[in-house]
Specification:
6 strands, three-stranded antiparallel β-sheet, alpha+beta
Length: 67
Amino acid sequence: MIIANRSARTGRYVSNATAARHPRTTVREKPGPNQSSSTAYRSATTGRYVTARTARNNPNGTVTENG
């Protein structure tokens, strides 16, 4: 099982060490077979999915998935 870390600021995958240094702007991802093809937004702070409006208002604190 591969678990990746993605920066909310750049959208790029980052190392575990980088994720540990920046926990509020990094999201852990666990790719799986049931991924949707629709666009989703996730908060880097809480890890929960948020609305498109919340993502627009906080671009450095959210990650766009499948977009």
